[in-house]
Recover the amino acids of this structure.
């Protein structure tokens, strides 16, 4: 069949976003619901939304088995449920919504689209952790990477804005939101990324720590009263920008506090920017150079300050931002903000995961 209109279901930590995407990538209808919406709210939203030909579900973790979109049946649902231990905060609500929409719209084919799939074919050098071979044989201990739907969209959109073939470009795509990750994308293929086995590794995020010395965590468990449950909660919910600033997970609030002299806020911004610059340079090194840096996600799209801070200190790579263009673009769509004379392009792209999901559904079903 051909899926012209696709109902996209994007489950986040605090909300469910439903979008009906038309065949020309126009959004025909939208509904934003709370996480785990009551049945009557979900039913009402489905009634009000335009009819669709298929459903596309965003699933954060596909594990080692799911390396591309897949038509959902009972077996797939059971396999997705089995991945819960690998993504206990992200996968369960997605699986629950899949079950509910299968019941509510049993006549519509449903497709699961995975944030890990874009990174599924990383070279072993990039994907493998230096852990005991027996462990790696027994368990899927590898770098999976996340935000793949966003990185894939940013890749194709940036190539269009630069009017260059994807196959000719080496891109560092920066998905900066509550969660944050970078990807090194060479000729449209992910060759490295900052998130790993879980979405905890890598950059400083809103409430997630990013990379931390595992020896530090072992020290806490051995020598203090911190428990495994304490670590889990702290690393996921009380670290990152919130933990550094001691005030907020919202970078806008922390930037405002830093501007009036709050030392914790200043430290939070400094650490965030330091890790971001280091990550961009590392992604460029993975490709032997970079042609463009692409910012996307809520922070990447809307914070000229974060983009400016990211570019500072990376002039040796040829990266430079035009100050006026950078400021003018905040929250005003896609565009190129490269400084005159810079040899690496800087691009801002609005995250459109719903379009990437709709495209994957059409390619699979059509």
């Amino acid at each position: 069949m051909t899926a012209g209109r696709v109902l996209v279901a994007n489950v986040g930590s605090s909300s469910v976003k439903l979008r009906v995407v038309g065949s020309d990538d126009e959004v025909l209808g939208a509904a934003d619901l709370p996480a785990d919406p009551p049945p009557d709210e979900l039913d009402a939203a489905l009634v009000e939304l335009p009819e669709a030909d298929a459903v596309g579900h965003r699933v954060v973790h596909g594990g080692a088995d799911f390396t591309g979109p897949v038509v959902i049946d009972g077996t797939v649902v059971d396999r997705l449920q089995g991945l819960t231990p690998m993504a206990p905060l992200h996968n369960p609500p997605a699986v629950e919504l899949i079950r509910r929409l299968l019941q509510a719209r049993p006549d519509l084919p449903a497709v699961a689209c995975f944030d890990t799939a874009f990174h599924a074919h990383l070279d072993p050098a990039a994907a493998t952790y230096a852990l005991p071979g027996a462990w790696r044989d027994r368990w899927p201990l590898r770098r999976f990477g996340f935000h793949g739907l966003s990185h894939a969209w940013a890749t194709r959109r940036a190539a269009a804005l630069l009017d260059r073939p994807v196959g000719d470009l080496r891109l560092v795509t920066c998905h900066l939101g509550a969660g944050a990750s970078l990807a090194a994308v060479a000729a449209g293929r992910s060759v490295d990324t900052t998130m790993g086995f879980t979405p905890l590794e890598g950059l400083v995020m809103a409430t997630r720590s990013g990379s931390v010395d595992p020896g530090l965590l072992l020290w806490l468990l051995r020598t203090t009263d911190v428990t495994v449950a304490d670590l889990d909660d702290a690393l996921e919910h009380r670290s990152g920008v919130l933990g550094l600033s001691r005030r907020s997970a919202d970078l806008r609030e922390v930037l405002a506090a830093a501007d009036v002299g709050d030392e914790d806020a200043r430290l939070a911004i400094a650490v965030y920017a330091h890790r971001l610059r280091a990550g961009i340079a590392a992604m460029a090194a993975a490709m032997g150079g970079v042609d463009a840096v692409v910012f996307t996600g809520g922070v990447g799209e809307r914070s000229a300050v974060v983009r400016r801070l990211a570019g500072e200190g990376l002039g040796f790579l040829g990266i430079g931002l035009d100050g006026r263009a950078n400021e003018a673009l905040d929250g005003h769509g896609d565009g190129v903000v490269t400084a005159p004379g810079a040899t690496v392009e800087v691009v801002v792209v609005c995250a459109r995961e719903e379009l990437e999901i709709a495209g994957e559904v059409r390619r699979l079903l059509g």
